[in-house]
Amino acid sequence: MVRKEIVTSGEYFEPFVGAGSVLFELSDLENRKHAFDIVEPLIDTYQAIRENPIGVWAATSSLGRKSPDKETYLQLRNDFNRKKFSPEDRAALFIYLNHACYNGLWRTNKDGEFNVPFGDHKKLHLPDQADFLLAFESLSNTSLRSISNPRETIDSLRKLVKAGDVVFADPPYLGTFDDYDEFDYPMDHFHEELASTLWELHLHGATIIAMNADQEKIRKWYGAFCKIESIERFQGVAGTHEGRGEWNQILATTI
To answer: Which domains does the chain have, with CATH numbers?
Structure first.
């Protein structure tokens, strides 16, 4: 999808980094990388790994690989929301709770507190020391930015992306996510403005790679300046069984 050969003289931008599956595939990319996300604890975790991967690994290992019982999980979740921790311990707890919660979701209540219920797993498949060192290798050349709202994502792209840069945009898909409404930013408007911004960046010499739901509006907004390819991708993280499975999506590129 995003090969390191595509990033030649410019820099790489991933404005909705999430789990970072593409970012970490580019671990040996020498060019500067930029990762944004609206989930502040996620960016804090990446920063802690970049600064002290062995410390985060040790703190994660101390929590154990056995799935907690429900009472322990809820106590750890409460501690995560209410207590102060070192960057390494907070990162470890973020990783642990993400594996122990229901279906690996990230969700918060109106007060910004993590509130995903207990997952009741038999065993937790936590990353080992080698995983943390590989993540460190990729993050050591990455600028990390916690985004406070979706408008800031678009403004940051307009401000930072230059001719020769590559942008991989894999946002929350149209029709599957409406939490941006809390920012008075309806999803239709957000996606249209994102596509318009990426088109503007392309006109100024940036390479664009984007993914989204295969919907008529998305095809219209991206088809004006991108090649469109239909793909199927498995969606494993969702709040309900119906939300998981194969999804029809589009890959839009200016390559």
So the answer is: 4-38+147-253 (3.40.50.150), 47-129 (1.10.1020.10)
